[in-house]
Write a structure and sequence with these properties.
This protein is of the alpha+beta class and 115 residues long. The protein has 3 helices and 5 strands. The protein is globular and about 35 Å long. The structure holds adenosine monophosphate and zinc ion.
């Protein structure tokens, strides 16, 4: 497992910073966004640190697929068949945390951006 000691989401995964955890898997992890933009707003992340979605897909495409499947399972468990996945890449697109994360949004008028 690779972790970046300065990364907020690595610290959440390690349990060093508290979060409302909704999924604790072997390769993926998920917790509620601290500033929710919709009734369901969860962040799904790979346990391994990588800076963005493409970097995760490049290092292991199966983990990237698992993020999509984890997102669907979380939405379904919370009663949502329909949801939006957002991956911001780069500050110009609104990325503020440089550990790959999928925003899972559901339950109302959904923003096109999140974060
Ligand atoms: P992004 O802007 O796409 O990089 O998304 C980062 C997201 O992380 C934002 O939606 C923040 O609200 C969220 N966030 C920041 N700090 C925390 C935290 N400690 N716990 C949960 N979510 C957080
Ligand atoms: Zn990280």
């Amino acid at each position: 497992m690779t972790a970046d000691p300065d990364c907020l989401f690595c610290k959440i995964i390690a349990g060093a910073i508290p979060a409302q955890i909704v999924h604790d898997g072997e390769r993926t992890f998920a917790f509620r966004d601290i500033h929710p933009q919709a009734p369901l707003h969860v962040l799904v992340v790979p346990r391994d640190h990588a800076p963005n979605a493409a970097a995760t897909a490049e290092s292991d495409a199966t983990v990237f697929a698992e993020i999509a499947l984890t997102a669907r399972a979380i939405a379904a468990a919370e009663g949502y068949d329909d949801y939006r996945l957002v991956f911001n890449t780069g500050p110009g697109a609104g990325q503020t945390v440089f550990h790959t994360h999928a925003h899972v949004l559901a339950g109302g008028p959904l923003p096109m951006s999140a974060g």
